[in-house]
Amino acid sequence: MHSNYADISPEFGVLASRAWATQEWLLSGRMIFYTKGCIVWSCKVITQRKTGGSFLTTARNLKWKLIVEIYSSRFLTNASDRLIALECLRREIQKKTKDTYWFGIWKNATSDQLVWSWASTMHGVRSLSIKKAKNVCNGIRFDDEKRILTILSQLKKVSKITPMVSTDQSPYDSISDRLASARYETFREELRYEQTSGMVGSLRTESDEIIGWDLLDEGCSTASISEMYCLALMTRKSDLVHPTETTRSVSKRTAHSGWQEDWVLLLQELPMSDHAYVRVGAGKVFWKSWFHDEAVQRVRIL
């Protein structure tokens, strides 16, 4: 085995930095890579060196999230080609899944994929695995002609958004402190993989209680947003520990004390409009009853 894996792996080669090569890389039946260390043969079954030794590679994985992660991190000369350069891949995937495609996301996974906005950015993105979460949208429809996304779900106004501030307080004497610390201990690692130019902050109530975190899209800032709304997309039971408990007293972190966590789309309402909004970011909200009394609304996203 070559002592330097990067010298023989196609993923570390110069070609791996070019977006135009993504479709050929994934769709070609057989390929020969001339790497720095040796010649590598790859088909849809194996990848091996000229000596016959095989090794693992992610270059043939056709899962959409992985494709987006690989593709978005590659260099593209013209930003306007962001979606066009994946058209052949999109058609091949659509043949197999029969799913509907909307500008970089798939209908059957809209709630999940809406959280990770990638087509509008020229930065590499990495989507997180949202395990055991269920869709809370009552309906999702896209108007191709008008390019309007309509979602039926719960919508709630956020009172405050503030920049994220670290806290090392322990033990936790309030829910606010617990969430603030949890956000830094856990979500800091999650947010690390998002667009680097995005602004990370906390979502708060009028009483200054932290209810979650937000990640604003590129070009958005708290100064430019007068009011922000959270649109619920997915929910799951939270493993947050109640302030009166300690992490040691919670077996395998299963005692969530009734807390839920929602992945939300952050929206700004357009002036003089009837439930029309634009996306400004995404985030996660922790609650016991925050969305409970909110009626399902028909929200149009332009």
From TrEMBL:
Top-rank taxon, per record: Eukaryota
The protein's name: HET-domain-containing protein
Lineage: Eukaryota, Fungi, Dikarya, Ascomycota, Pezizomycotina
